[in-house]
Amino acid sequence: MIWRGVIDRYKKYLPVTEATLVVTLHEGNTPLIYSDVLSRLLSAAVYLKYEGMNPTGSFKDRGMTLAVSKALEAHSKMVICASTGNTSASAAAYAAKAGIKSVVLIPKGAVALGKLSQALIHNAQVVSIDGNFDQALQLAKEIAEKWPVTLVNSLNPFRLEGQKTGAFEICDQLDGRAPDFHAIPVGNAGNISAYWKGYKEYFKNKKIYSKPVMLGFQAQGAAPIVKKRIILNPKTVATAIKIGNPASWRMAEEARDESGGLIGAVTDKEILEAYKLLASREGIFVEPASAASVAGILKLGRKRYFQNRRSRKKKIIVCILTGHGLKDPDSALREIKNPQAVPARLDAILAAVKI
Amino acid sequence: MIWRGVIDRYKKYLPVTEATLVVTLHEGNTPLIYSDVLSRLLSAAVYLKYEGMNPTGSFKDRGMTLAVSKALEAHSKMVICASTGNTSASAAAYAAKAGIKSVVLIPKGAVALGKLSQALIHNAQVVSIDGNFDQALQLAKEIAEKWPVTLVNSLNPFRLEGQKTGAFEICDQLDGRAPDFHAIPVGNAGNISAYWKGYKEYFKNKKIYSKPVMLGFQAQGAAPIVKKRIILNPKTVATAIKIGNPASWRMAEEARDESGGLIGAVTDKEILEAYKLLASREGIFVEPASAASVAGILKLGRKRYFQNRRSRKKKIIVCILTGHGLKDPDSALREIKNPQAVPARLDAILAAVKI
């Protein structure tokens, strides 16, 4: 079957009609990769859902295809969003495909290089705000309320509708079952909410016969849900989840509580360790925020969280890797040393490397 | 059907056995996206094969899964390559997944930022050579001949075997037919050779009933095949095809001649125009080299190349977009102006953008 994007594949579950003009870059259908290393470490079957393999390099494309298609259906000529980077890249790309304009508000100095280059090359009008993400979002909302511009942040309900298709895909890829645990980074908290919605819908439609325990992970310095208070100056190397007042706070708590799960915090050190483990052992390059889900299950594993269960059958854990490492090459380059420069001679090379 | 990489999907056509331990990051299965803009401009049906959606962001993964799987089968403990960036990123990632070591020789100052970060984060031993790609390749070959290290440049025959699966996929995605024209950037010339091999095999196996005309495009400043001579100091903004003495020179000429096609040159200006058109009109971000295929068909279109045919039925043109734009964020940032910084106030934003 040819893949033509998440709306085409899952339209039965989405608020579209035959009249919806689908704006797609063939997002979704991302690989679910079995991780030998993590499975061994956790005595479980661990799969990595590599959402970095969406067209703009992050999971945001799943929601953006629907948000922009619906904006077009409503004859909108412009979309706006506030963004730490991934949303803006996606909004700009889908707006370009749709032939409409886009405006992006980014917090000054807080957006990774790759993401900034994306919004700009896709012709968005990008404004850098002297403030944090939460302020940028407030301003985007105000503009969308007062002018004929469609807000495509996750407050736009179509965004989460599109994102829930990630849950459908995982269950389909597991041959009609849900994982036992679903681990996911939590920033603005839309994605954990969307996945939980997806699992519940598939369960209701009898496509699966159990639902996963939802495990969300915030960065220690940007963990409002864990700390139960707004963080005014969130700090973390994981820029994509550097958010102090998540828009989907309540929904994320519901996902946690209804599923019997948890939302925990991981340190930047733990995030970067998981980041390097994925790249050096699994061949998977992610942006730092993505590694929060892996850091989280490794932390729970050390507390024997996954062993404290009755069944001896191996549990299935799915980790969402939200974005591609190429989004943030600077983070990678900070973690490693630059290559040695040598003359173009055999002896010089052999002196520089271990063969 | 769950996608588990190109070896799993096309093993019937590949030199693997049940004993081959497949090293995969679920490469392949990349989208074939219909381009409204190009189809209109060329009065044809133009599809973009977005190879940037492979795990390491380029088409190299198709060949690397096979090259590294076969290296593992031969009990190799290390792979080596020379690279302008994409091959090294792929080699490093697949070696990491396989649990073996990798060595990468790059020409000094000639590798885009994203690609360099990839090789390093995937734990390759990277050496920057004071010389060009062709010298680096010569040295890599020498090392592979004298030490127990597997060369994974496209001289490794398994690389092209893997890459030919791109042709299979296109035909499958077109519901069992080949395109009329296949446009592709030409650097080291392995990819055009691999695609032609793939089309011929599918034709022989009666999976398709015609073969495409192969249209290869080199950058004007790095066009040895067009100019029929080695270019000692190739120059182009398209670093991925900045190669003066292609390893698969003869095979590329065969693909051209057997298919009744051509290999032409496009200027950096034409490449960057196509690059910006793809990003701003199609929502597709590629690295500059990828845009050579689009620049090429636009150039042929201006000469009415596609209209000079007898049939009135619209011709199908497939353009290979070899790598993701995130591989080379600097190229994007050079092409656009930086975002304006404004205070976090509504009036300041409205003064900065057109709504």
Spell out the key features of this protein.
355 residues; alpha/beta; 4-stranded parallel beta sheet; homodimer; 15 helices
Explain the overall architecture.
Two copies of one chain form a homodimer. The first copy, chain A, has helices spanning 6-10, 36-42, 60-73, 86-98, 113-121, 133-146, 157-163, 165-173, 190-204, 224-227, 249-259, 268-281, 291-302, 329-335, 346-352, and strands spanning 32-34, 45-50, 78-82, 101-107, 125-130, 150-151, 181-185, 213-219, 262-266, 316-321, 340-343. With 355 residues, chain A is an alpha/beta fold. In chain A, the strands form two sheets. The first copy, chain A, has a six-stranded mixed sheet with strand order 1-2-10-7-8-9, sandwiched between helices. A four-stranded parallel sheet of chain A has the order 5-4-3-6, with helices on both faces. The N and C termini of chain A lie far apart (45 Å). The interface between A and B is large, with 88 and 88 residues.
Topology:
2 copies of one chain form a homodimer.
Chain A: H1 6-10, E1 32-34, H2 36-42, E2 45-50, H3 60-73, E3 78-82, H4 86-98, E4 101-107, H5 113-121, E5 125-130, H6 133-146, E6 150-151, H7 157-163, H8 165-173, E7 181-185, H9 190-204, E8 213-219, H10 224-227, H11 249-259, E9 262-266, H12 268-281, H13 291-302, E10 316-321, H14 329-335, E11 340-343, H15 346-352
Parallel strand pairs in A: 2-10, 3-4, 3-6, 4-5, 7-8, 7-10, 8-9
Antiparallel strand pairs in A: 1-2
Helix pairs in contact in A: 3-4, 3-7, 4-5, 7-9, 8-9, 9-11, 12-13
Structural Rg of chain A:
20 Å
Helices of chain A, by number, come to: 15
Biggest contact: A-B, 88 and 88 residues
- What is the typical, i.e. mean, pLDDT of chain A? 94
Strand order of the largest sheet of chain A: 1-2-10-7-8-9
Oligomer: homodimer
| Straight-line N-to-C gap of chain A | 45 Å
**Envelope shape of chain A:** globular
Order of helices and strands of chain A: HEHEHEHEHEHEHHEHEHHEHHEHEH
Q: What fraction strand of chain A?
A: 15-25%
**Share of helix among residues of chain A?**
40-55%
* Low-pLDDT regions of chain A: none
**Main sheet specs of chain A:** 6 strands, mixed
Structural class of chain A: alpha/beta
- Find the count of extended strands of chain A (DSSP E, 2+ residues): 11
